[in-house]
Amino acid sequence: MKNLILELNLSQKLRIINCIILFFVFIFCFFSHSAYSQDISEKVSEGNRLIKEKKYEEALKVLLDARGLDVKSPHPDTSLGILFLMKDDLAEAEKYFKSAEQKNPELVAVKYLLALLYEKKGDKENSVKYWSMLLKNTDFRDTAKKHIKYLEEMK
Amino acid sequence: MNNLKIKNIYRKKEIKKLGSVLILIFNFSFLISNWFFSGCVTTKPVVKSGYNFSNIKKVAVLRFAGNGGVTVSNEFISQLLAAGVNIIDRTDIENISNVTLSGIDVVISGNVIEYNQSNKLLVFKDKNNLIISDRVYPVSGTTIVPEGYVHGLNDANIFSVSASVSVFAKIIDVSTGEVVWSDSKSYEALDITTAVGQLVSSFKRGLKNSWKELK
């Protein structure tokens, strides 16, 4: 082994060192990312548990921390929306659900929550807007039709 | 040998006939069930033709039968009162036979078909994935049944996010004992109180078509 290393020229040695460095960089990135994802999931779960225990102030702190860990994840925002729904603070709930929607516009669950929230707020225009978006989804089509009909009757 | 062949041909024909009959029965039952279930969602109020709702001066609201009956009755009382109707609160009884009828023109009663405080569940799944579920749904080895006792709601990542209510209501004319109006509706909202409020409001709007004096 020692002889083999001595036999290699400088450029070959540098190539090997480069490969080793790249390998460790890859390993570091991979594990730090998965640890990071796990961390945010754990934080959201902890926040959700605290919401269920009605420890709203503690939940708020944990979920805001989670929000800071990954600004692209819609989960902390959705949990924060739920938290404010539980506190019957519809304006704050709306703010966080809208933020979750911006982060992932494909989330049907958030659109459903926003449709119901606007309906409770008496904001017919926005409620109809969200129910109309849900018409495209086969699971929600009938419910959405019914709610739109109800809201239109109110006009 | 020939007889055997003929028998086989007949048997095949019979099987084909039976198959087509079964397909017909299946299609027919599918159509009927489809019609029935869609009918449950979009019912229209039924009104006794020629009945003069303008003569109604005093209404007794009875307790609606079923889980959540008192809540539904109280919502009827609030909304009809707000609509300018004279109300007698008889939420202590469910049946018209037990009502003291003096001075009452009509009685509103009915039954709560569904009173579900956990209609839909929000499930935090993997990273970036959220699900709304209204059916049995396996989540990390747990089965969620969103009716009555909700299995899985102990899981921190499962929330009940909507409630639903379904009600049948009727108006009975006290002088004749006849049902003069009936309707059934179902609705879902963020919570059961909102669902009941919106449902009764929808009943009232439907009733306004016949009872013009309602505000």
Topology:
The complex is a heterodimer of chains A (155) and B (215).
Chain A: H1 2-7, H2 10-52, H3 56-69, H4 75-86, H5 90-103, H6 108-121, H7 124-134, H8 141-153
Helix pairs in contact in A: 2-3, 2-4, 3-4, 4-5, 5-6, 6-7, 7-8
Chain B: H1 2-41, E1 46-47, E2 58-62, H2 69-82, E3 86-90, E4 106-124, E5 130-133, E6 137-139, E7 142-144, E8 158-173, E9 179-189, H3 192-208
Helix pairs in contact in B: 2-3
Write up this protein.
The complex is a heterodimer of chains A (155) and B (215). In chain A, 82% of the residues lie in helices and 0% in strands. Chain A has eight helices and no strands. Chain A has helices spanning 2-7, 10-52, 56-69, 75-86, 90-103, 108-121, 124-134, 141-153. In chain A, α5 (90-103) packs antiparallel against α6 (108-121). Chain A is elongated and about 90 Å long. The N and C termini of chain A lie far apart (86 Å). The model of chain A has no long low-confidence stretch (mean pLDDT 86). With 215 residues, chain B is α+β, with helices and mostly antiparallel strands. Chain B has two domains: 3-35 and 119-161, no CATH class; 39-116 and 163-208, 3-Layer(aba) Sandwich (Rossmann fold). Chain B contains three helices and nine strands, in the order αββαβββββββα. In chain B, strands 1, 2, 3, 4, 5, 8 and 9 form a seven-stranded mixed beta sheet that branches. Chain B has a two-stranded antiparallel ribbon with strand order 6-7. In chain B, α2 (69-82) crosses α3 (192-208). The longest helix of chain B is centred in the first third of the chain and has 40 residues, at 2-41. Classes of the chains: A mainly alpha (155), B alpha+beta (215).
Observed structural traits:
heterodimer, A: 155 residues, mainly alpha, 8 helices, B: 215 residues, alpha+beta, Rossmann fold, two-stranded antiparallel ribbon, 3 helices, 9 strands, flat
